[in-house]
Amino acid sequence: MIFIKTKVIFSSKDIHLAEELVSNLFYDAGLKGVTIEDPGIEPDEGWADDAYLPPKHHSVSGYFPKNSLFDEHFRILKSGLVELNTKADIDYNITCREIDEEEWAESWKKFFFPEKITPSITVKPAWQEYHPQNNEIVLEIDPGMAFGTGTHPTTSMCISLIEKYIKKGDLFLDVGSGSGILMLAAEKLGAGHVRGLDNDRIAVDITRQNMVKNQVAETKFQIEHGTIKNIRNLKFDLIVSNILANVIIAMLHDLKNLLAENGILVCSGFVEKNRQDVLNKMEAAGLKTKEVISKDNWVAIAASHHFP
User: Is 165 within 8 Å of 186 (Cβ atoms)?
Assistant: First the structure.
């Protein structure tokens, strides 16, 4: 399959908010995920010595299939960028080039290297060697055509909160599984069974491959194409959704109804500007905030559901 790599290089006084807003435009144009380049992200000393130089500019890229829908998708994206320039003072430059599936899968690997997420958990690319220390948990990921390497602040915060709140034998749900990294973290941290949902069939396939790659038994996980509307008569001890503020807000009542008594909901994928809005909506949905953490202007929230 041929894709059109559409890259938006941007600058703004609030670079992290701009990153979220530009990413949202790609989702509005029909994509399930994007790749983000940040000049400030560098590998830890001694890791990934063969890595390429970091990018020179902040950018968000999306990969649109080359078909009859591209012109309309590009129009939506360009219109949104013009509006962001006017209303949010975000300057941008947009480029397009054709790329085949194999080149797409290889192009971003130069920016993915082993990263220690918590003192006991490290994420590493499947194609690089890494020697764990003591009882360190190593999550081996090959995102392929899906999204989620574990190195973005929202993903690393979700993993940290999973590590803090998960209990041995918990039933775990990831809404928007991407590469499956959060499911994998939960399983390695002791979940009894992990389940994932994604509305992208490619992500479903990649998640399944990563679970098998990390030697998770088929009886311990379930991944399916769909939404939370697909789930009936089940309650989960820990639910995680790392998507976007508006998507999470729209799902809050359904997510709460899927929580077991004293269950924990972890949400991320949004910046500080949207923190209070999400907190307010959580309270309105009957969820009690337990913890709010932030990293590089991104936010993650843990909330609980207590039955009356």
Answer: no
Cβ burial of 43 (10 Å; 0-12, 13-18, 19+) is: middle
Q: Calculate what percentage of the chain has a pLDDT beyond 90.
A: 48
Tokens (6 digits) for 305: 């559901």
Report whether pLDDT(231) > 80: yes
Give the SS3 label for residue 288: strand
* Mean per-residue pLDDT, 106-130: 77
Domains of the chain: 2-104 (3.30.70.260), 112-305 (3.40.50.150)
Task: Please tell me the predicted confidence (pLDDT) of residue 229.
Answer: 86
The answer to whether the beta carbons of residues 213 and 187 sit under 8 Å apart is no
pTM of the model: 0.74
Q: What is the DSSP code (8-state) at residue 132? A: -
Q: Quick one: tokens of 121?
A: 């958990």
